[in-house]
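Supplementary notes for students who missed Thursday's class. We covered one full example, reproduced here. Read the sequence, then the structure, then the short commentary at the end.
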Amino acid sequence: MENQEEGPRRRESGLWRRARTRRVLICSAAGCAVLGGALWALPWGRPAEPAGPSPGALAMAAVGAGVPADAAGLAELIDEREKHVRARPRDATSWAVLGTAYVERGRRLGDPAFYPRAERALRTSLSVRPQRNVPALTGLAALSNARRDFPAARRWAEQARRLEPRRWTTYPLLIDAFTGLGEYAAAKRMLDRLGELRSGPAVLARAAGVYRDRGWREDAAASLADAAAGAREPAERAAYVERAGQLAWERGDLQAALRHFREALRLDADLPSAQIGQGRTLAALGRTTEALNAYRAALARQPLPGHALELGELYESLGMPEAARVQYDLLRERVRAAGAAGADEELVLGRYEADHGDPEDAVRRLRAEFARQPGSEVADALGWALHRAGRSGEGLRYAVRATDGERGGGVRSAAFMYHRGMIERELKRYGAARRHLAEALRVNPHFSPLHAPRARAAARALGDPPDVRPPELDE
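Structure (token representation):
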């Protein structure tokens, strides 16, 4: 399959291959000013170098350009903007910067309590300047993406694009929104437009995400490597290295994944997603104590429901049901908190209910989610929930959609293939089940501490295909 795609990949990604040769420093008009300072005379009369930008100034540059900012810089930026808008409440731009910084802070910490604050600040910006307020519109699009409200993200970002079609920072928001909605062709169009307007690390990283969703893993890995090489600030580089670790994990390359996650943490010790990745990889390597420590450290910083589900399943695989239950209770608590803050965690809750709770409740939740935003992840989860609820025939339709490259399911996911294979096994489609279970284990034999062993057991039980001789032709 990859040989057949080689030509199209080469043509479609040519723009991005050329872009990799260029190194453009990412900065925004609002954030690129270096904080001033006097030149101090050294004892021998030569002036010292001017002080570099403060963490807050670097965070402002990152927030304005839509790239990752470090935790200390975000805290300083938020504190400075809060003081500024108290003194100048009619400054619409500062309200927009503050709101967007809240979004990034909440996303980084996994704390949805920042999202209502972000919405208040961004809507205040719009009330102060209701016309042509593109920073507030893009901030609201970023907030909606963070909340997993992809229809709203598309609406806000499209409004911003109509006002300023050449503002490049709007296009990553549209890519995220269209991806969440399952509109992969539209996401690719937005990526093409982004490439016409901008080059550099942020664009390469965004291209990597689109390539990954289309199953072009080598192109995705190359783009991320070049994005990391071109990133100027440690927090931005760490984010790209961490994504490279995710790609390595997805293809089952444990040593490369661990190397990437450790490098990301060296660059940014406050990056919980890298700690989660490290824990996931260490568990697959059989280094259980280290894995549990990494998970606990990450959840202490960023208690996301999906990470609690992962740790709970790891505990289950180790025969520790009570410890697993603690994590599942945390998951429910965090889902409730997210809902109170306007964030949508129905996908994670549906996955939990399908495997560990009430499959019928999972089906109800995931049907509603699929009606709103029918991406591949939701299609896979709904198909699996239907199977777990005893409706494998209906579930297969969604499992096929999640793994069908023609309909957007081009991502090479071991979990998706496992779900499809197990559903087909239940329906006595043994040939297809063998193929898809084998594909799951080929893509990543360590994809889940709980489900990968089940995939191997099911594949062994199915055995080899029967050796059937073709019928002889009559002479």
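Commentary. The mean pLDDT is 88. The two ends are 38 Å apart (CA to CA). If anything here is unclear, bring it to office hours.
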